[in-house]
Amino acid sequence: MALGEFELIRRFFTDQPVKHPSTMLGVGDDCALLHVDGSQALAITTDTMVEGIHFLPDVDPEALGHKVLAVNLSDLAAMGAEPRWVTLALTLPHCDTTWLQNFAKGFFALAKRYGVELIGGDTTRGPLTITVQALGLTPRNGALWRSGACPGDLIYLTGELGAAGLGLKIRQGRTAIEDRTAIAHLERPEPRVDVGMKLRGLASSCIDVSDGLAADLGHILEASGVGAALDWERLPLPNRVRRYARETGDWRMPLSAGDDYELCFTVPPANRDQLERSLATSGVALALIGRIEPHTGLRLFKDGQSIDLSQDGYQHFSRD
Ligand code: ADP
Ligand code: MG
Fold this sequence. Notes:
Bound molecules: adenosine-5'-diphosphate, magnesium ion
Number of strands: 13
Largest sheet: 7 strands, mixed
Number of domains: 2
Distance between the termini: 9 Å
Strand order of the largest sheet: 8-10-7-11-9-12-13
CATH topology of the largest domain: Phosphoribosyl-aminoimidazole Synthetase, Chain A, domain 2
Structural class: alpha+beta
Radius of gyration: 19 Å
Low-confidence stretches: none
CATH class of the largest domain: Alpha Beta
Order of helices and strands: HEEEHEHEEEHHHEHEHHEHEEE
Oligomer: single chain
């Protein structure tokens, strides 16, 4: 029987024989949280990128080195964690030193910017596959979980929506629109680490948008046992994404395409002013896109209609 990615994880990997009291949060969030000692928690996440699935074979290796680290730092950001260490597992079809030099250049340029040290990994031969594990720190009770959203909370999104999705359409030759910024969003996403840390104590829940806003906000809703309404007019769509949606009629693309790596988070109304003040100097745009509601499901208000978005978003294995 075919299973979706999340059903597969739930069915085979959540029910397990060992549970440690020091595991504050296990399977099911952007990172696991471990309380090893003292006032801090260790946040851990891992993400794999496979040629042909997560990146095109002709991708610039320097951009790839950046992206494979960025997507992991993005998961730390979604927990409000400060990045510290990474491991790198490389599976390579052959040893191409020019490729490796450029990959390492992109990887370490981003590592340097966020003060991240590479502490180990693994190197094997095989189809090009790259796995990074990232570790960071949060105050013991200060991490941002997916499960804290409450009815009435405001839903925010950093940056822009759909640019990476448009970049992919361009790279795949599926649109005549030209947009170098969209390609940069796809190939060199910027993890919102500083914003994530500023959200500690202010946001009630947070996730990074890797599989599309509809799917990822859906994870917050499921973990929190609530629903939400989004307002189409408030979505921060870049002009060229609006043009793509208008010309093709594919207005769902920015909501269902992955790879934005923006943060989607919820904020109790009482924290709104403090949050907006705190992020005003971050240099990252902030959009208020909707509200958490008591009844479950994800609804989009567009052109006077309420549209059900519960099925949008990317899942590995969903079409098997
Ligand atoms: P993200 O998009 O934030 O990286 P994923 O959607 O990849 O998260 O994974 C959802 C949750 O399932 C995460 O908590 C992740 O750690 C966990 N997970 C994914 N695959 C496995 C697995 N094979 N075994 C145990 N946990 C897993
Ligand atoms: Mg994530």
